[in-house]
Amino acid sequence: MAYKKITVPEGSKITVNDDYSLNVPDHPIIPYIEGDGIGVDVSPVMLEVVDAAVSKAYAGTRKIAWMEVYAGEKATAVYDQDTWLPEETMNAFKEFAVGIKGPLTTPVGGGIRSLNVALRQELDLYVCQRPVRWFTGVPSPVKHPGDVDMVIYRENSEDIYAGIEWQAGSPEADKVIRFLKEEMGVTKIRFDTQCGIGIKPVSEAGTKRLVRRALQYAIDNDRESLTLVHKGNIMKFTEGAFKDWGYEVAKDEFGAQPLNGGPWMSFVNPNNGKQIVVKDVIADAMLQQILLRPAEYDVVATLNLNGDYISDALAAEVGGIGIAPGANLSDKVAIFEATHGTAPKYAGKDKVNPGSIILSAEMMLRHMGWLEAADLIIKGVEGAIAAKTVTYDFERLMEGAQLLSCSAFGKAIVKHM
Ligand SMILES: NC(=O)C1=CN([C@@H]2O[C@H](COP(=O)(O)OP(=O)(O)OC[C@H]3O[C@@H](n4cnc5c(N)ncnc54)[C@H](OP(=O)(O)O)[C@@H]3O)[C@@H](O)[C@H]2O)C=CC1
Ligand SMILES: O=C(O)CCC(=O)C(=O)O
Ligand SMILES: [Mg+2]
Q1: 113 pLDDT exceeds 90?
Q2: Which residues in this protein are found as N6-succinyllysine (predicted)?
Q3: If DSSP codes are grouped into helix, strand and coil, which group holds residue 238?
Q4: 24, 30, 142, 175: least CB-packed within 10 angstroms?
């Protein structure tokens, strides 16, 4: 494919087989978005750490050919002031199959819609996978942070994130309200003028493909349970249906049977004969449970907004969003991404924790099958934290720690590989 502003480096493409497995060459071209705000701080450190891990693991026989692609403020500088998410950025992720991105700014209440959400929707990256685990020594507000070891499977293409909403007082909002009242018999809109309207689509197909991936993950990674998190008591036909369809996939496709008469279920992991329990929890109770009884939860499948909240809340138990990684996955394309935002007050200060995007890159290496390099990153992060050489977010909560800049923390990770 010909690109206008993207320079394609020397290297080869990762390709995807019909069964969605990858063919990864020794010099894969990997597109990356630097990101707005603290993207300028964390992304270069991530590139340096990954290059060091790959070089150490494979003694020069493998090397990533990084290819910068643009989105957010940088795209408006490289293309034109109205181009926030260029078509060719999307094409590059499709063509090269595996990529990584820093955070992108989304204005609140008006202006452009989320570029992060747009990327997920355009590329149908329907899984947002966010593992949350504790590294020994990381400061935590809970007594036993080591009990937190969960993997969130957040539905990434539906729910109120679909962006179907109209501003209060707009002709569109008024028209929808009129339709609801006059044609659907709705009487419960408390104030029916100057009322914003949002729509929450949740489908059987969207739910089932997400839960299917989460259950397969539980099987492949020897996990004990999958919890469907929903607010189905209130939103019966969206969140409640998510729960029902989730159990249905477990039953119809994985052979799950009711436990003690249901609704919880279990099935046998075909890899090792162990039971995998499938259960559900209402979302507000879950936010309490993850603080009080985190050891009881393992893989979590949930809707888009719940997943956004739960992943940040869980991250806070194990060091904060500065260190929590994530991936956006379709069947064919994977974009790894920091879970935090652009933290504008810290932008360009070489201060923040680059751990989130570095650990996202670690997930990317694992996805590519470069396990030795991924293991080195974990070793480096563990070593830097154990030596108490950390960025401000950890240093302010740790006794006797040495405060490092963002880039110096990257170097400490490399030193401990
Ligand atoms: N995927 C994405 O690209 C995302 C983008 N965003 C966007 O980012 C912008 C800012 O959002 P905001 O709500 O302020 O959330 P942010 O995640 O940007 O920042 C909130 C706070 O989290 C802490 N934090 C964030 N990143 C780090 C880090 N790397 N190291 C250490 N601490 C960190 C800081 O806490 P403290 O002040 O205590 O030091 C910071 O003030 C918005 O436009 C939002 O839409 C938000 C989330 C995800
Ligand atoms: O797109 C955004 O601005 C926020 C997204 C977000 O919070 C997330 O993906 O966790
Ligand atoms: Mg979020």
Answers
A1: no
A2: 101, 243
A3: helix
A4: 175
- What is the ipTM for the molecules in this complex? 0.98
| pLDDT for residue 187 | 95
CA 163, 156, 73: angle at the middle one, nearest 5? 65
CA of 175 from ligand 3 middle (Å) equals 32
CATH code reported for the domain at 1-133+321-416: 3.40.718.10
Asked whether 106 lines ligand 2 (CB < 6 A), one says yes
Is 392 known as a binding-site position? Answer: yes
Indicate the pLDDT class of residue 110, thresholds 50, 70 and 90: confident
**263-273 tens-digit pLDDT:** 999 999 999 99
Distance CA 410, CA 361 (A): 13
- In contact, 338 and 360? CB cutoff 8 Å: yes
pTM for the complete prediction? 0.96
For the chain, give every residue range classified as CATH 3.40.718.10.
1-133+321-416, 140-153+203-318
For the CA of 337, the closest atom of ligand 2 is: 9
Question: Annotated binding residue at 230?
Answer: no
Locate the ligand 2 atom nearest the alpha carbon of residue 339 and give its number.
10
Asked if 350 is an active-site residue, the reply is no
Q: Report the pLDDT averaged over residues 304-323.
A: 95
Q: What is the pLDDT of residue 218?
A: 98
CATH tag, 140-153+203-318 = 3.40.718.10
| 297 labelled catalytic | no
161 given a catalytic annotation:
yes
